[in-house]
Design goal:
This protein is mainly beta and 202 residues long. The chain is 13% helix and 35% strand. The protein has one domain. The protein is globular, with a radius of gyration of 20 Å.
């Protein structure tokens, strides 16, 4: 079966919000209270006392703050990865400020946009849940995790941070890593849009 690669771009995100695949305007859900950071669970050390030299060391715990093979974004202490169940993020960031919904253009179900301070998280339906395919930074309060780039920076700062291995398409600088992309939309060499994306095979 032939696979089609779907890459969500900044322009496509804008088109999605405005047209909702040819339907009406997406319906915003009532904005709940501002997101709150979930407290870290308390763990108790139940290791019995004994001769430490003879004890088998426990395997190191997985560090959720370490990046994977693709681009990731950190909101405070919360690491957000592409193609991750949005419920895992909501548990850590708290309820979104608002949710926009529209029938999915490419999948059976509903595409959703979850609004948080300074960013929007776009999802697609999969396995009876919503999985992340795009993170869009909306103002200059947030910076990219690795390069520290924010809206308003010069394109030279982008290249200094991420290198020359990019695709350029009418002011859009696209970097690829694994199944993810990081795009910088520019105008007059100034960054006007930043989008993390997941490459979907449909």
């Amino acid at each position: 079966m032939k696979k089609t690669i779907l890459i969500i771009t900044v322009a496509a995100l804008t088109l999605f919000v405005l047209t909702a695949c040819g339907g009406g305007q997406p319906e915003p859900a009532p904005a709940p209270e501002a997101p709150t950071q979930q407290e870290e669970p308390i763990t108790n050390d139940t290791t019995p006392a004994g001769n430490e030299e003879n004890e088998t060391p426990a395997p190191p715990e997985e560090d959720e703050t370490q990046p994977t093979s693709g681009f990731t974004f950190k909101m405070g202490d919360v690491l957000i990865e592409m193609d991750q169940d949005i419920n895992n993020i909501i548990e850590k960031l708290g309820e979104p400020l608002g949710i926009f919904e529209a029938p999915s253009c490419a999948f059976d179900g509903i595409d959703r946009i979850f609004g948080y301070p300074g960013m929007q998280i776009h999802t697609y339906p999969k396995e009876d849940s919503d999985f992340i395919h795009t993170i869009s930074l909306r103002d200059d309060s947030l910076r990219t995790t690795e390069g520290g780039i924010r809206l308003g920076d010069d394109v030279s700062a982008v290249i200094d941070a991420y290198g020359n291995d990019y695709e350029l398409d009418t002011g859009l600088y696209r970097y690829r890593r694994g199944m993810t992309t990081l795009e910088f939309l520019t105008e007059d060499d100034i960054v006007t849009g930043i989008t993390y994306g997941y490459i979907l095979e449909i």
